[in-house]
Structures are given as structure tokens and as C-alpha cells.
Amino acid sequence: MKLSSQTEYAILALMELGQRYGKGYVLSREIAQSREIPISFLERILLTLRNSGVVVSVRGARGGHSLARDPKDVNIKSVIEIFEGGSLAPSDCVDERLAPTLHCPLEASCVIRDLWKNMYSAMLQSVENVTLNILLEQERIHQPLFNLEFKCQNPNFK
């Protein structure tokens, strides 16, 4: 699954706000310049984040944007779901919101569904407990967040 540029830019914008958390409001243009995000795109992203309760925005000479809560309380999975339509599932048949209502005639013998389930499970494990604070700490020490080697739990897939 490929995440949208909007999702990537949203996380980058939140990282900038996280770095400045507790230091007042940050102007959109400062976020855009610091994280190299097109300003018009950033404005739409910040509106979505504000409407979702992740960001607080204030107009005026001393206005700008700020995180609505501490970076340790901003879950990256939730942010991704805001911009990717509410689910990270690669297919409807493994989306826990939709799967109970779907009736696929191939379900009993579908190896593709098993692949999607494994992929979805690995993706969820990767982001489930990641907070903005964790990303900020990784950025500070310049270390990758995960070991890129993935070991599938299903013995049928090697």
C-alpha cells in the first residue's frame, strides 16, 4: 500500500509542530519552509488536522498552529487513517470495518486474502504504537525507527 503525499506531508507538519510544542503558535509559512511542503497543500492539510482535533489554529498577528495535545498523545496510525480514508487495509476483505458484511465466494480458498491479511497485520504492528513523540526522538538521534527486515509469521509464505 502506498500512502499519499498528503499523509506524508501531514506527518512532517506534525513533526514540525511537535518540535515547537509548548512554545506558542507556528505560522503556516514557517512549517512549509522548514519541512519543504507546498504552502497551498499545507493549508488544506492543516484544515483537515484542525477539523480532526489534532491541531489548534488561531488567526491574527499572534496566531498560527499548534498541536492540540502533547506529542506523546498523537498516534501516527490515527493520523494516517485521517488522510487514507479511515483504514490501512490493502483490501476490503481484510478491513475489519467491512469484512463482516462482505460475502466473497472465494473466501474459503483465497490465498490472496491470506497475503493481504499478513501484509495488513505487519503494517498495523509497525504503526500501532508509534507516537509523534517517538518520531521526534528518532529524528533527533537520526536513527531509523524500524529494522527493515520483515519476517512473515505465516509458514506458508517465505
Order of helices and strands: HHHEEHHH
E-strand count: 2
Top-tier CATH class of the domain at 1-73 and 130-144: Mainly Alpha
CATH superfamily of the domain at 1-73 and 130-144: Winged helix-like DNA-binding domain superfamily/Winged helix DNA-binding domain
Poorly predicted sequence stretches spanning 5 or more consecutive residues: none
- Tell me the distance between the termini: 20 Å
Helix share, percent? 40-55%
**What is the general shape?**
elongated
Question: Structural class from helices and strands?
Answer: mainly alpha
CATH topology of the domain at 1-73 and 130-144: Arc Repressor Mutant, subunit A
The neighbouring-strand order within the major sheet is 1-2
Radius of gyration: 18 Å
> How many separate helices?
6
Largest sheet: 2 strands, antiparallel
Strand content: 5-15%
Overall mean pLDDT stands at: 85
Assign the CATH architecture of the domain at 1-73 and 130-144: Orthogonal Bundle
